[in-house]
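Q: Please design a sequence for this.
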């Protein structure tokens, strides 16, 4: 009996020591309701795209997201506080959400607080997640709040201000594309899908507008029209992805993390890990080159200087962050070039593609020289 009591006492102590459950959260802005938030923080002010008043789809909580100038949670760029709750245990102005910026203007990391029940009573626990601004009025994340801790999708809808009336700083994103003809650029559909304006930069100095002329959302591909470079562009050669084998050496050339690393093209080298992508998706290649923000739309070259795939955004990182709360290393996915060929055939005009291959294997520097004749840096305004 004494031994059992000792074990029980030790268990209680351990739970107390290592529990992250808390029973009250700070109210860094004081008691705050919706009308007060609008008057103090939004009326007549320029705000970031993530700022505003959001509600959960079950309508339990209304959360006001603001720049964090409160002096608390100083490692967070934004705080989300309760301005309405149908749950009596949540007070007005109480912290509900913390967000940190990433290199992508549409992705944030942070914590979301939920109610929990333990031997100590009802409390509040924070769960880390990746938060995606999937549209101007929608935030999505996955939280391990399902049965057995399985992730459950949580969605927040903007209720104020209406996006069309927002006085916001312009939302920009960047990525990579490459010429496949004298006037056509291939890239990712996701990067340009909501674009108001698209601008390409060729060889670091020539900037021109681009327009979408074809799109394939299912395969995350788009074609842009760019006029004015016909006399100087050397389109990339497109190779057959059906000839790719596991273990083949490959290269990507693009503009990852341009706000930090700069807007000069970067080359990466790796191998083909698998002839299928996430969950054995046969349309994709898995490569040992990480898909960083800004690499979206980068061409994947083989050793003969042909494009055999197109990097597909940061699918790998966001998937594993949401599902497993880990960031995989040296992992990326590329849409096979055959699907780009299919999209090209849908154009009203006939497009002649180059398929020329080097008679000998090329090293990384030689591939980079070839790539720089066709790749472009893309900036999208949304």
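A: Design:
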């Amino acid at each position: 009996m004494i031994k059992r009591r000792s074990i029980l006492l030790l268990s209680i102590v351990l739970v107390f020591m290592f529990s992250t459950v808390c029973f009250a959260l700070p109210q860094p802005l004081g008691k705050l309701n919706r009308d007060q938030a609008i008057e103090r923080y939004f009326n007549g002010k320029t705000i970031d795209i993530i700022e505003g008043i959001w509600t959960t789809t079950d309508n339990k909580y209304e959360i006001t997201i603001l720049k964090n100038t409160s002096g608390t949670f100083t490692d967070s760029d934004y705080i989300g506080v309760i301005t309405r709750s149908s749950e009596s245990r949540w007070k007005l102005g109480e912290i509900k959400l913390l967000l940190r910026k990433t290199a992508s203007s549409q992705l944030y990391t942070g914590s979301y607080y939920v109610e929990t029940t333990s031997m100590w009573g009802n409390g509040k626990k924070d769960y880390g997640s990746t938060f995606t601004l999937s549209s101007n009025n929608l935030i999505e994340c996955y939280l391990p709040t399902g049965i057995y801790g399985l992730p459950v999708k949580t969605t927040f809808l903007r209720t104020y201000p209406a996006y069309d009336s927002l006085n916001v700083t312009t939302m920009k994103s960047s990525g990579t594309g490459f010429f496949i003809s004298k006037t056509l650029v291939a890239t990712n559909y996701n990067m340009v899908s909501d674009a108001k304006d698209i601008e390409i930069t060729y060889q670091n100095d020539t900037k021109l507008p681009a327009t979408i002329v074809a799109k394939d959302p299912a395969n995350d591909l788009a074609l842009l029209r760019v006029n004015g470079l016909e006399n100087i562009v050397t389109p990339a050669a497109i190779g057959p992805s059906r000839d790719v084998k596991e273990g083949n050496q490959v290269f990507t050339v693009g503009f990852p993390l341009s706000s930090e690393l700069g807007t000069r093209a970067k080359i990466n080298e790796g191998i083909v890990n698998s002839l299928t992508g996430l969950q054995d998706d046969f349309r994709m290649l898995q490569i040992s080159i990480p898909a960083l923000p800004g690499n979206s739309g980068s061409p994947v070259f083989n050793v003969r200087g042909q494009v055999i795939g197109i990097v597909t955004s940061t699918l790998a990182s966001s998937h594993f962050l949401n599902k497993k709360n880990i960031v995989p290393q040296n992992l990326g996915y590329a849409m096979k070039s055959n699907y780009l060929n299919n999209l090209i055939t849908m154009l009203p005009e006939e497009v002649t593609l180059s398929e020329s291959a080097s008679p000998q294997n090329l090293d990384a520097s030689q591939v980079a020289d070839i790539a720089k004749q066709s790749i472009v840096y893309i900036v999208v305004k949304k």
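Q: Thanks. Anything notable?
A: The two ends are 68 Å apart (CA to CA). The chain has two domains: 20-165, 172-381.
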